[in-house]
Amino acid sequence: MYRQVLHAQWLALRLPVVLLAVLAFAVPLLTVTYGGSLEGAPTGRVAEWLFAAQQIGVLIPGLALLLGLLLGIGVWAHDHAGKHVYALSLPVSRERYVWLHFTAGAALLLVPVVALGIGALIAVFSVTLPSGIHAYPLQLTARFLLASLICYSIFFAISISTKRAALAILGIICGILLADLVLSVVGVSGSVTPTVFMWLTNWPGPLSILIGRWALFDV
Fold it and tell me: Considering the domain boundaries, does residue 157 fall inside one?
């Protein structure tokens, strides 16, 4: 049954998966725009190239977040459209059905991850690095995989939740924004949104992996 679920998910999500795979493949290649051999190059040129490569690396966590968002919500799109009638007609438990969807989406997630890894390896082999600069294609790919899985799991859980849970999440978000608005109106210094963002993105926050240096090349 897993093959049928995977095939159905692929048919439904193949376009965004392929587009994200192309983007994931291209981003590492952007870091070697200068290309060629940097061995013996002036220090200024190396520093400029390294800074540009690190700035491009900022795109990778955003790509992981987008990948997790699209797949986490997309795997349940047809079920929500059909009001889960098809799922209820299957001779499988709800737990198994959820697990089949989760693993099928995770398998599709591997396509952009592999594309990023291939692009990173090509980028590494296309440039000769000067002394003191190192490449981290495997580490970058592994981190991208972990970040994508975390984001996918979060949005998968939100997407499968009941309407009451979804409304509760929406209410929390609106409450945070409303609290910031009230604080600004009464003239109180401070903001709730940055605090919540810090909790989410600082360890042990669930999105802490998205923050930090995402560089294919570094010292």
Answer: yes
pTM equals: 0.80
Tens of each residue's pLDDT in the chain, 219 residues: 778 878 888 888 889 999 999 999 999 988 876 555 666 667 777 777 777 777 888 889 989 989 998 898 888 776 665 555 555 556 677 778 788 889 999 999 999 999 999 999 998 888 877 777 788 899 999 999 999 999 899 888 888 766 666 666 667 767 766 776 666 666 666 666 666 667 767 777 777 888 878 888 877
Which amino acid is it at 93? S
In a domain, residue 167? The reply is: no
Q: Is residue 187 part of a domain?
A: no
Q: Say how many domains are in the chain.
A: 1
The tokens for 59 are 């795109």
